[in-house]
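Incident review: delayed structure delivery

Summary: a single-chain prediction request sat in the queue longer than the usual turnaround. Root cause was a stuck worker, restarted by the on-call engineer. No data loss occurred. The affected request and its eventual output are reproduced below so the record is complete for anyone auditing the incident later.

Affected input:
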Amino acid sequence: AGWAQLTYDQLQVVYDSAIEYKNLKIIPVILRGPGNSGSGGPMSLSKALEEGLVTLSERGTASTENVHWLRVNNRSKRPLYIASGEVIMGGRQDRMVARDTILYPNGGRDQYVGVMCVEEERWSDKEKKFTYFNYANPRLRKVLDHSKNQVSLWREIYNQLDSSGIKSPTLSYTGQRLDKKAITDMEGYLRFLTNAIGRRDSTWAGFICVSGNKVIGADIYNSQQLFYDQLVPLLQGYIEEAVLNGSIVHIKDEKIKNYIDPALVDEKSQENYLKERGKIFRNNNEVFHITIFGE
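Output delivered after worker restart:
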């Protein structure tokens, strides 16, 4: 079994093993004990889709009652973990998962997951195939988790597209990650960081990301396996933030520590701090995943 909690009793932030590339610095968070190896535990959505074990489709044709749901068919024998902030492109319009969910295997029968729309100007007659588009950037994830409000989400997407000067005819969030110049920059980050992390020992259970003089966010899991399955999808969101809004890292470790400590020092402090600045996802009374939003 995993940990009932994810605090400094179980975790260690290893500041001197940080990895840095251009505008992004990543600080590993490791489990002090074996934690949850993850074998037989929930699979990530990206892995399950990649291995063809899960299909996603629209729940129906009319936008009004179907826009906030996607149908999931899990043909594997393992539970499926779908995280808030994961972006799914295609269908009748692009969506983002609204809240962390674990779907238990049921022989591939229909299950549903709540989503928000991240493409305001499209609801097409034809249903395109859905493709996985990784995690949204941390600012959009923060708006989603704090507001759970479709209009606030559209406003944030509009502001992001506007400030990065990217034209998206359907006002799709994905427009800024598909921009040619952004793609080239982001690929450079992803290649460097995944190689560097791959060369380390595989004890990471999460990371803290910083850019310029700010913490831009952190994600920590109770299973190393799940963290490594989520690594590339998660990184894409943080890289996008670093490329579009970041600057060369000059934040001091002490400032990072002051920002992160209240989220990890103990259970009560974590609960209070993350009400405002993050979220805690529990499953079977275990803390499964915590997110700390940026400054």
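Verification: The mean pLDDT is 92.
Action items: add queue-age alerting; document worker restart procedure.
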